[in-house]
Design goal:
The chain is mostly helical and 239 residues long. 48% of the residues lie in helices and 9% in strands.
């Protein structure tokens, strides 16, 4: 699911986990990885144990034990898609960094505890720490999935929609606005080049589908080359 995703620059581990003597170091790191996926995927962590293990530099079995310990201590909640709890749908971290709106009075330097009923409360005294919007602005949080959804929904920009389709097919995600801007400039340029050569957005999308179903790995460059070959283009567009 997370193929080609960039690795995090750092992990956030709430201090309450450091104070929890029932958790070891690896379990705390596992929480940090879960929280990173949670923030990257717009409040969802659907990573498998193997994927979490790769990012936490441990094993899948260790992750499985860490999840049990984290849930038992109330730091996470696992959501399953079947009654027998054999298939996990997602993991919800219950200790999240306080980025709620200023009107809610959450300090930007604290963190929020989330109850299983999704009720939030501060774990610190926010009376003196609440940000004053008249004196200090708060930088807009970058969430890749939100940007991806905007690209896909903008029917006035077929080039952007094709980039969104490509990123979704390749399971790409970028952790920062800077990396996002860098990648979108590169991929928009490649899509526009194909459009200028006379291919329609529909034809490019069909060729992308063909490449996805025909090759173990592919890029926009491969789509452009395939379209440029009359035989290949004919075969792809017939799909």
């Amino acid at each position: 699911m997370y193929k080609n995703m960039y690795k995090p620059d750092f992990l956030i581990i709430p201090y309450s986990l450091l104070e929890d003597d029932g958790l070891n170091h690896t379990t705390r790191v596992v929480y940090g990885v879960i929280y990173w996926f949670f923030r990257m995927q717009a409040a969802e962590c659907r990573a498998s144990n193997a994927t979490i293990a790769e990012y936490a530099k441990t094993t899948a079995s260790t992750v499985a034990n860490a999840l049990v310990a984290l849930e038992k201590s109330g730091h996470i909640k696992r959501v399953f898609s079947d009654a027998k709890k054999r298939t996990r749908a997602k993991i919800i971290p219950m200790r999240i960094f306080g980025v709620s709106s200023i009107s809610e009075g959450v300090s930007p330097i604290g963190y929020t505890e989330v109850s299983p009923r999704s009720e939030q409360k501060n774990n610190i005294n926010t009376k003196n720490n609440t940000c004053d919007p008249s004196k200090e602005g708060r930088a807009e949080e970058f969430v890749f999935k939100n940007q991806l959804d905007k690209l896909a929904a903008d029917s006035t920009r077929p080039d952007g929609q094709l980039v969104a389709k490509y990123w979704s097919m390749q399971k790409m995600a970028f952790p920062t606005k800077e990396e996002y801007n860098k990648q979108i400039r590169s991929h928009i340029t490649q899509i526009k080049s194909m459009l200028k050569r006379g291919y329609t957005a529909s034809e490019i999308a069909k060729c992308m589908n063909y490449c996805e179903n025909s090759f173990p790995s592919w890029t926009l460059g491969a789509v452009a080359k395939y379209l440029s070959k009359s035989y290949g283009a004919k075969k792809a567009l017939e799909k």
